[in-house]
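Researcher: Before we compare anything, I want clean individual predictions. No alignment, no superposition, just each chain on its own. First chain goes here; please echo the sequence and then give the structure tokens.
Model: Echoing the first chain and its structure:
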Amino acid sequence: MSYLRTLVSLSITAVLLSSCRKESDPLPSDPGGSMGTDRVLDVSGSVISSTGTQLAGAMVDCKGVSTITDARGVFRLEDVPMNDGPNFVRVRQSGYFNGGRIFQVFGDEDVAVKVKLLPKVQIGSFQASAGGSVSSVDGVDVSIPANAIANGYQGTVRVFAQYMDPSPSAGISPIPGMDARGAADETGVLLSYGMAHIELEDGSGNPLQLAEGIMAQLTMPIPSGSLGSAPDDIPLWYFDETEGLWVEEGNAQRQGTNYVGEVAHFTPWNCDLLETCSTRYQVRISCSGEPYAYLPVYVELRLGGFQAEWGTFMTTPSGYLYLTMPCSGEAVLYAIDPATEEYLEIGEIGPFTSAPDLVPITLNGFCTPRGAVHGSAVNGSGEPVTNGYVYLDFGGNFTEPIFFDEQGNFNAFFYALDDALWNTDAQLVGWDLDQFVTAQGPVVQFNSQVTTLQSPLVFGGQVASVDGRIFVASTNSTGTNALYCLDASDGSLIWDYEASQNEDEVSPIFADNLIVFRNLSGLQYALNAFDGSEVWSGSDPDGMSPF
């Protein structure tokens, strides 16, 4: 593959939120995850399709905590019980194969992930009573005998499959991770020689499975770059969404450029060798000590003549990346544009022999232009917005979400990986996940200057700003409609005036020391802008402002 060695047009968001930093515990000595829970953390991130489309309404769950993605595919799971070592967040969306991300926890920092889902592609169908064999354009073949479907089903069987090539290809990876448990209960990481999603459905879209004791034949191509090292026999592994890892079950034999084996059920399947010796890395990515936080990083594994995609991971709020790699393997790290998936090499790590604790590594020479924004967010009544986030809209591309803390504050750094982006504009945008509304902030430049917002981001209505005051028609957290006057310096409430059915898509108007607004019934109000007292009100049957 041809790697991009020059700087690419890429903006990355980083944040240092004190609320996301938790007191550190000693590093664990057990290299794997435990059966119990060791800490409680937040998990945030975003979900995209194979084409980069943001997926709204996707179901996200981890350790019994669940939510759905918003209109931009963003989610946050709060207070999730975590194990030291590998954990798994699952994502489900209609029309797509289930996906998710294995992530490593070795401390008390909150976690961010980025998940790519693959579309469910029907590769064929047959009648259950007759059985059949279907093939995908990328070489996956599924052969099922007659009368093989559970519960005696005899109707149409629709087969969906999608091959996942583990060959190196920098970008946001759909592969959930490579942590595994072998048939003898040994744990480790996998070297993949090909994997695929396979699912069966009836004509109405209901899931189907093989009857107990029935086996189906599965054929998967071996990546062309791995043909030289592919063994004659290889274990088969399925992905267990409950455990969040690959589990060994059966084996496959090499036939030319394919592996052929038998499976007893349909899930993601993987042809792999297990590496039981692994090294755990704590990699800090920074520039002159300043961390790159919430940075998507693609990892490529190199092990002798074997090269493979290892996955895409996100740095923590303080710039750490936690990886578990084969002992004798090297890893090449690439920064990824979350919108375009262009990439830039950060550096290499490894190999190291197995270590009882994390191997700390610092990559401190990854330096690019940056911008920064410090500010806060409030709703129309001046109350802090705590369930929301900010991001940059950069030419129709979007940086990673940065969530507000418990006081509605944010302290965000935005990085550009292209020197040509100095003094380039990007729009700061905020989302309130309780009201499902947006607010626009200032234009930010990648000029290494800090922008401190003189007024908070205000969610919940059109805004008029006059003489250090913000006027907004909105609804507060208890559902009360009112016109609110806020102090522009800190978002605190100066006065409010209750009125039902406010029009929140038209800005209040300031004239002659009066603030004028209307409701959806056409009733208009003129208030003293300084104390909120009513000066006059009247009906406008056309719903039009006289100003």
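Researcher: Okay. Second chain, same rules.
Model: Second chain and its structure:
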Amino acid sequence: EKKKKNAELEKRNVFALLEETEEDEVEEEEQEEEQEEEQEEEQEKGENKEKEKEAKKEEKMEKVEKVLSEDEVRKKAEDMMDEYYICFEVEEIRFCLKEMGPSSCHPLVVFTAILSIFEKLKHVDKLNSLFKELHADKTISREHFQQGFVMFFKNIEDLMMDYPRASSIAAQFIGSAMVENIFDFEFLANETKELQLTRASLDLFLFTADWLREEKGEEVCKEKLSDGVVMKFVAADKRTNEFITSYLERKKLMNLKPLLLSEY
């Protein structure tokens, strides 16, 4: 009987050992499976990151490919300004500018916006307000504003054929740009040298000075004017007080004489 009992105990011990061994093996297998799953997850994450990188590269490439042509920029800017003159939403303008892509298109946008005002003269103040905000928060840089105005100066003579009052109209947003320190009279003189013979350069100067005096006050006008600056807007053979005086009389701007000429 003792032998039988001992044999049974041995069997039980063997079975217990077998069960423990099986449990250990199952546990090891589970751990191996977990490790494999973790490795697979890590691998998937790595692959996903690579895919994301590739997708971003492709997106950048698409953006580069989608650089707008001048005609496309002009058309979008025209549509943008048409919309602005309805709702006057500056935030919408910022959104449109972002959609257009690289800031290199901004000078053409500024030029197109200036041209648009000749069809919407009652909204000159709104254009000035728009330019002020876009310049203040650097949505459009000072340099790009200047480039846009230069494009306009080069086209002013053509505009004068359709709009005889183009110079006096332009003076309103040129003067406003000066108040915002986008450029000054020295810049205007340098960029309109080619317009001296037709007197378009002098007209832009005189009407801008008059706008500053009327709208911003004589003190502001004086601050913007430097001694003898008027002579930089006329050809060398016309740089005399007599010529400037006669021109002021013709343009009915004699109120500017004390501000422009030291002796009169």
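Researcher: What stands out in the second chain?
Model: DSSP finds 13 helices and no strands in the chain. Additionally, The first helix runs from residue 2 to 65.
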